Amino acid sequence: MSSARVTRKSYAELRNSFIGGLLMENVIMNVIKYILQAYPYKDELSASRLTKMLYLTDWKAALEHDRQLTNTIWHFHHYGPYVDDFVRMAKDDPDITVINTTTVFGGNKQLFQLSNNASDKFTITPQLKEIVDFVINATKDKNYEDFIKLVYSTYPVLSSSKYSDLDLVKKAREYKAHRIAQ
Fold first, then answer.
1. Domain count, the chain
2. Are 168 and 59 in contact (CB under 8 A)?
3. Which structural domain, as residue segments, surrounds residue 50?
4. Where is each Antitoxin SocA-like Panacea domain found (predicted)?
5. Contacts with 103 (C-beta within 8 Å, 6 or more apart), sequence order
6. Average pLDDT taken over every residue of the chain
7. Residue 92, in any domain of the structure
8. Other C-beta atoms within 10 Å of 76: how many?
9. Looking at residue 23, what is its pLDDT?
10. What are the residue ranges of helices labelled H in the chain?
11. Which residue did the predictor score with more confidence, 81 or 5?
C-alpha cells in the first residue's frame, strides 16, 4: 500500500496534470533535481529524506502561498508523511542515479544523486527556489534523527491522528488562525 496518495489520482494521472502551464511531474522533478544539486551533503539524500523535504516544501508553500507545490494528499502513517510515487518518479528519470546501500543499523537504504551526465536544463521559479532553499537551509545541518523530529514537529503532523490524510492548505489556515488568536 502506498504511504501517501497523490490526490487520489493514479501515477499516470499525476504525470499528466498541469500546474501553471507546466506538467506537474516536470515541476516536481525539477525540484527534486534542484535539491540533489543544491543540498550540501549528498550522502544524506535517501528516499526518506528526499520525500520528507518535498513534504516540508509543500508545507512551507501552503503556509506562505495558500497552496502546495504538489497536488499530493499526504498521508500520515507510521513513517510520517511519505510518498512512494516521488521515489518512483526519481527512479524513472535518466538524470538521477539510485545507489543501494545500508544504514548504520544494517538496514537497506537508497541514495539519490544526479547522474554524471545529467542535464543541467532544469529550472524552478524564483518563488519556488526561495521555498526549497529555505527547506535546505533548515534541514542541512540536522542528522537524520533531528530531521525526523523536525518533520514530526510540523503542525499537520502534530494536529492529526496517525493514518489520516494531511490537508496541508487547510492545516496552514488552521495554524495561522491559531497564531493570530494567541
1. 1
2. yes
3. 11-176
4. 50-153
5. 109
6. 85
7. yes
8. 20
9. 76
10. 11-16, 24-38, 47-65, 84-92, 126-139, 144-152, 155-158, 168-181
11. 81
